[in-house]
Amino acid sequence: METLKITTIQHSKLKSVDFNNLGFGKTFSDHMLICDYKNGNWGAPEIVPFQPISLMPSSKIFHYGQSIFEGMKAYKDKDLNTWLFRPNENFKRLNKSAKRLAIPEVPEPVFFNGLKALLKLDNVWIPTKEGSSLYIRPIIFATGEGFHASPADAYRFLIATAPSGPYFSGKVKVLIEEKYSRSANGGVGFAKAGGNYAAQFYPTQLAIDKGYNQVIWTDDNTHEYIEEAGAMNIFIRINDTLITGPTSDRILDGVTRKSIIDIAKSEGIKVEVRKFTVSELIEASNNGSLKEMFGTGTAAVISPIAVYGYKDTDYALPKLEKTFASRLKERITSIQTNKSEDPFNWRFKVN
Ligand code: COI
Predict the structure, then answer these.
(1) Rounded distance, CA 231 to CA 182, Å?
(2) How big is the CA angle at 262 (ends 239 and 300), to the nearest 5 degrees?
């Protein structure tokens, strides 16, 4: 990789940020990484101040939505070392999404050297407060121009970061979706395409209007199989067994999802990766075997569900004193923040 050019900001915004009240993804660090693709090649990556981007209205991102992203986090431990969690999984998934959206794949050195240099430069932006982290947003979007419905000939890879607190506060109330779908066989549900998320906003708003926080996505064909929870993977605990759907064209291969499966197994919890139906869920609610439901994702980590709604009936989850959700969240976050051993070798030290 060519040398990384760095242009630093004149006046840091750091002092204006209240690290005790960050919210999620609302405040952005001083710098960003950019790297442009044109004439069939990725150019030299550069770090520049976080600033607006100038694009022609004819750029294909605006017309055909060629845009993908990743979600990662950087953590500080008590000695102020910086850690990433399974970053290679995000790198591989970014390029998997790229391929599906006909976007050129980003070379590994551009991604990793760029990310490490950015984290080094904006190191003071990584929060130290428990439950906070630096949320990292790698994106690739089409900058090439034209109204022809075909892949662009130019792209930008960009990494922006945002010191962030928790994504959700408290338990959520969800509605099982019976009409709309987030993905279909042969589609892009497995990819982190911006459009996947845009397409969720309208059905989610309808659920919010009915008093729920988010939607439980079911399969597009029958709406009988439970697939994802909002922008997260979903886990269901029946008695002492955790169940989550298999990844597919329609279900995102979540890094938190697969880590939770491994951690749960290592804790002696029985895990089944299999299809799970709405009918099974209702039956489990009725016979008392449904103990917990929770979403998993990088942003939210583990988000417990308090109530789910289906066909005008609300089903409350039992209020347990000790939950798998809190136990597994504790385990994954202690690995991420270097508070415990990492038997899986997932942690990646940055500095
Ligand atoms: C993440 O969990 O990091 C995601 O990418 C989901 C996003 C909608 C916040």
Answers:
(1) 10
(2) 80
Is 162 near ligand 1, meaning CB less than 6 Å away?
Answer: no
Q: What atom of ligand 1 comes closest to residue 256's alpha carbon? A: 2
pTM: 0.97
Instruction: In whole angstroms, give the CA distance from residue 175 to residue 229.
Output: 9
The pLDDT tens digits of the residues spanning 177-216 come to 999 999 999 999 999 999 999 999 999 999 999 999 999 9
Q: Options 3.90.420.10, 3.30.460.10, 3.30.470.10, 3.40.50.1970; which CATH number does 5-164 get?
A: 3.30.470.10
DSSP 270-328: EEEES--BHHHHHHHHHHT-EEEEEEEETTTEEEEEEEEEETTEEEEPP--SS-HHHHH
- Superfamily name and number for 172-336: D-amino Acid Aminotransferase, subunit A, domain 2 (3.20.10.10)
Q: Is 85 helix (H, G, I), strand (E, B) or coil?
A: strand
Could you give the CA distance from residue 340 to residue 331 in angstroms, rounded to a whole number? Answer: 8
Substitution candidate for ligand 1 out of 298, 301, 302, 329 with most atoms within 8 A of CB = 298
| CA–CA distance, 234 with 303 (Å, rounded to integer) | 9
**Residue 169 CB neighbours (<10 A):** 9
Quick one: which of 145, 148, 216, 143 has its CA closest to 182? 216
